Amino acid sequence: LPGLIDGHIHLDKTLTGLPWMPHQAGPERRSRIDTEKRLRPRFPLSVEARAANLLRQCVAFGTTALRTHVDIDPEIGLSHLHGILAVRETFSDLIDIQIVAFPQSGVLSCPGTAELLDAAIADGADLIGGIDPITMDGTVDGQLDAVFAIAERHGVGIDAHIHDYGTNGLAEITAMAQRTRAHGMTGKVTVSHGFCLGAAAEQDFARVSAAMVDSGMSLVTHGGGASPLPPVKQLRERGIIVFAGNDDVRDTWSPFGKGDMLERAMLLAWRAGFRTDGDLALALDIASTAGAQILGLTKHGLAVGCRADFFCVPCETLAEAVVSRPVRTLVVKAGHVVARHGVLMSA
Ligand SMILES: [Zn+2]
Questions:
Q1: In angstroms, what is the span from residue 10 Cα to ligand 1's centroid?
Q2: How far apart are the CA of 254 and the centre of ligand 1, in A?
Q3: Which is it for strands 96-102 and 63-71: parallel, antiparallel or unpaired?
């Protein structure tokens, strides 16, 4: 199969490789943000070491490229970014890594963050992130104005977390679509999560998804267990590229996950009610080829002239691969064997 693509992960947040840490945050997003900020100075391993622990697992599971969001705020400055940039260099023969400068604590409500996002792009981040403009910064416009201005100045794309439900979330996605067209950024903007699309009234879904189509926006989902799932098939039928990522993997936000995108394809299929071979193959495409398209990875696939990023699994069909998530007997990156039977060869 062509290499798996993790389109949304948080390498700097993971606790992979540390002793088990019971989940401490409350049920609200604000509590998760505050809990993480309270605990992270005491983590006994560096960003680099924790990210490397997770990356080894991702590679052994057949992931050949990923997009990671990296926290940026005035407390940690660009330290997490610099850690992930170093890890990207170390792992460059094993996996392609795209980095989003992510304002986890908001932009306007966290003075100094906009300047840090600008500096993050100058230092090597590939895209600008964002998060729930209304909930985090009080208005739709302020955060989006800042984020789109930085993106336009540096000629980079945007991938913003939109968790907000209902009319707030729909207004945020609509405003992103308007700005995407106004700034000439068609095809360069992604909505992460977009839970509101999974619970929208029919006419609202039609209106907002049409705006996404017009601006070439894509959507990345992790199939979150407690949130409405955006209707991935309908979105794709309308021409929107839907791809997938693991999001939080064993961190202060979520105890779940191990970095396996076949497992993510299964969870997504499970949540979407997919049962036919065609639908299960679609889930696999969302976890692989669709992500490659958004990450700009041309020549992804199994054909002469492709980049030889692939893995082998003992199963009969694509559907069976998703359902049974068998051991990856071989993982090849750029023509080199990097893992066998779930075990990394080096690094
Ligand atoms: Zn995320």
A1: 6
A2: 11
A3: parallel
The CA distance from 102 to 263, in Å, is: 25
C-alpha–C-alpha distance, residues 23 and 26, integer Å: 9
pLDDT tens column, 104-154: 999 999 999 999 999 999 999 999 999 999 999 999 999 999 999 999 999
Distance between Cα 317 and ligand 1 center (Å): 31
Name the token pair of 184.
């000439």
Contacts (Cβ under 8 Å, ≥6 apart) of 286 = 221, 232, 242, 243, 244, 265, 268
Q: 244-303 pLDDT, tens per residue?
A: 999 999 999 999 999 999 999 999 999 999 999 999 999 999 999 999 999 999 999 999
